[in-house]
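hi! just following up on the protien thing from before. the input was this:
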Amino acid sequence: MSSAPVRVMLCDDSATVRAALARVLEADPGIKVVSRVGNGQQAVDAFATLPPTGRPQVVLLDLEMPVMDGMTALPLLLRQEPRPAIIVASALTQKGASATMAALRAGAADYVPKPGAAGGGLADPSFRTELLAKVKGWARIGPSQPVSKPAVPQRAAPLTPGRGLRAVGIGCSTGGPQALTTLLRGLSGPLPVPLVAVQHMPAGFTAMLADHLDRLGGPGCAEAQDGEALRPGRFYLAPGDRHLLVEGKADGGLFARLSDAPPENFCRPAVDPMLRSLAAACGGAALAVILTGMGQDGLLGCRAIAAAGGAVLAQDEASSVVWGMPGAVARAGLAQALLPPEELAEQIVAATSAKSRPTRQGVTA
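and the predicted 3d structure came back as:
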C-alpha cells in the first residue's frame, strides 16, 4: 500500500516562483503542495485554516518578503502543531549565506540555494534533485533527528591497536549542516587530534557554515587554508570549490593542502580525495565518518582508509535525510557501526582515547 504524499507549503513573495516550485514538487507523485502563500504572516495564518491532519509537514520558506519576512515567521511556524520541518530558500550570495546560517541557528532544518538564471534557474536538474530529496527526507525524519539503535553491518578493518588516532575525516552532503551541528555539540572537551570535513556546499556558504559551527562552543572551526598546520582540537572545513587534502610533515605533523583538481563525483570539494589523502598521510591512524548525503562520495575514500588499517563509521538510515553516502559505505561492509550523529560523536571521543577504538558493536574496546 502506497503512503500518503508529503504535504508542503510554499512561502515566497513571487507568484512566479511559487508556481515554478509547485511544478517541480508535484511532478513527483509522492509530494502534494497544500498551501501557497506570499509572506510569513500568510504562512502562519494558513495553519489555522487547515485541519491538523492536512497541515504541511514541510515549509519551503523564502527569507526576504514583505509584511513578515522569513526570519520573523520562522519561530512562529516552529510553534505550530504538528511541527513542520522548515527548509529555507536562499540566494547564492554572501548575504544569502549569512541569512541561511542564522535561520539554521533559529531552528530551520535545512536550506536550498536558489539557482540563478545562468544555471537554468528553478528548472536546473541538480536543484530539482536536491529539493525533492530534502523535502522527502525531512518529512520522513521530522524537524529533529531521532536517536536509533540500528543493526550493525559486516565487520570492517579495526583501528590498529596501540597506534592511536592522528586525525578524523568527516564527509557529508544533503542534510549535512544539521548533522554536523549535532555531531560537534556531542564532542565533550578538546580532542587530541584535528578533524577535517567536506560538506558539499557552494563557495561562500562554507565560510558561513564554518562560522555557524564555530559558535557551538565545541572544537574551534574555520575554513582550511592552504599550507595551514592542522592542530589538535580544531575542526577544518573544506572551502567551497576547493578540494581539501591532508599531507604529512617531516616532524610527524599534518597540514592542509587545497586543490583545484577536477571535481570528483560531480563535486568540488569532494570527500573521496580528502579521505584518500588522509589514508596516505596517517595510514591506520585515521578515522573516517560518513554522514547523510546523496550519491556515494566517500565510498572510495573509505576503502582507502580501511585498506590502510583505519576505521570507518557512518550515520544510520533512520537519522539521515538521505542515506546515499553512508548507505553506500554500509552496503560495502566498510562501516564498523551505524549510529545517529550524537552517538557518532561519542565514538569519536572514545576513538581518540589512547586506550580505546571503535568496534563492530559501536562501543569501545
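The first strand starts at residue 6 and ends at 11.
Residues 167-351 form a domain with the Rossmann fold fold (CATH 3.40.50.180).
cheers
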